[in-house]
Amino acid sequence: MKKMNLKVLLAAVIVFAFCACSTNNVREPEQIGKQVFEILKNISSSSKDDYISNFLSIEEIRELGKNEDVVKDADTRNEMTSMLKEKWISKIEKDYNRIKEKGGKSGIIWNEIQYLDFVYELKDEDGIKGCEGELYFKFSDKSFKIEIASIFNGTEYRLFEIEDLGQYNVNTEVDSVISYKPTIEETTSGTFIDSRDGNEYNWVQIGDQVWMAENLKYLPSVVGPGTESETTPHYYVYGYDGTNVADAKATDTYATYGVLYNWTAALTACPTGWHLPTDAEWTTLITFLGGDNVAGGKLRETGTTHWHIPNTGATNETGFTALPGGYRSTNGSFNSIGSFYGIGYCGYWWSATENYATNAWLRNMDYDNSIVTRGYSIKAPGRSVRCVRD
Fold it and tell me: ∠187-193-197 over CA atoms, to 5°?
């Protein structure tokens, strides 16, 4: 791993923060690599302005330079507080162009890269704490690495340098800093962070598709079960009858089963890079697993912690971990979960495909069989959402 001097980088005005969103809280160094990986994965679809907007603002850098508890060296603090915005933006643009140019020459299709590993060291130089590391990723049959450096601002890690994108030969390269190399194999599961609210989700590859392995929890607002609409987005948390988002998020049902969405809300609920699956995408999944009669068992979580006895045929061999989140019915009540009918009887998941102007297709799984049922519903009920990767 190449040595990068944090103080020199700052003083030379090549400091910049390359993070998924300036409001993201990256409190653990392990998250830095995954955060950068998601930005690289989306770099082709992002404009230069979008790319620049991911960085810390010059105002934030100057404020950090005033913090003597974080930056001990007076000269470095002076460099940070007097940094010129033009130089800051110019450096970001140059590195943006360099990464895309090198990626193009290597034939990388960015939205098809696969995460391998992030190997890092914690640093403390002249009172500036940070983290330096190498992100390893794969495209096709080739593997690559890129250098990452970050600074700790006293609360969280901020990425400020990404450089030296290059192909990595796992069989011949020797690195004196790390004692192992990542295994070059297809990654079929992992995690990602939703930059809107900081929720971290598991994902799993099934066939050629990549699905979230838990129900979506995005909750910009909340209403009780007595409120409904076919056209206005509404968000529900099972068993919660109120409008306070923090209170709704504090419930056990939110933590376990996520949010119930009417169809209008579900259409735009998935994070960037993901989308509500179409009816055809659901069909692709079910067909890959052997058809409607057996796919439910392969998708459902095993055991009876959440699903009601007998949870017939559940193997969860896909890692999809379908849970029985119940639903909000159109008469203003919740069903199939909690105190009404007991925990764990059924789960319903929207598709993005309409069936007539007033209805939309969905999928349903029950506790007492291995079937995935294809059905349709009016758009007002609250149902669960699983997102599929673009």
Answer: 165
pLDDT of 72 above 60: yes
- Give the CA radius of gyration of the chain: 24
Single out the residue of 380, 215, 238, 234 nearest to residue 300, CA to CA.
Answer: 215
How far, in Å, CA of 134 to CA of 128, rounded?
A: 20
Please tell me which residue, 15 or 170, carries the higher pLDDT value: 170
Please give the DSSP secondary-structure letter assigned to residue 319: S
Domain spans, the chain = 6-184, 192-389
Cα–Cα distance for residue pair 365/280, rounded to 1 Å: 17
pLDDT (tens digit per residue) in 14-45 = 333 333 333 345 667 778 888 889 889 999 88
Q: Which residues contact 5 (CB under 8 A, 6 or more apart)?
A: 125
Report the pLDDT value the prediction gives residue 186, as an integer from 0 to 100: 53
- List helix spans (H) across 82-166: 85-105
CA distance 104 to 99: 8
Distance CA 195, CA 11 (A): 30
Type and span of the H or E element at 49: helix 48-53
Strands in 114-125's sheet, in edge-to-edge order, are 114-125, 128-139, 142-152, 157-167
Residue 325's pLDDT is what?
Answer: 92
The pTM of this model reads 0.55
Which of 234, 355, 307 shows the shortest CA–CA distance to 297? Answer: 307
User: Is residue 354 predicted with pLDDT exceeding 50?
Assistant: yes
Q: Which tens digits make up the pLDDT trace of 294-345?
A: 999 999 999 999 999 999 999 999 999 999 999 988 765 555 443 334 357 8
Sort 162 into a burial class: Cβ within 10 Å, 0-12 / 13-18 / 19+: buried
CA separation for the pair 278, 362 (Å, rounded): 9
Distance CA 133, CA 30 (A): 10
Enter the tokens of residue 51.
């790319």
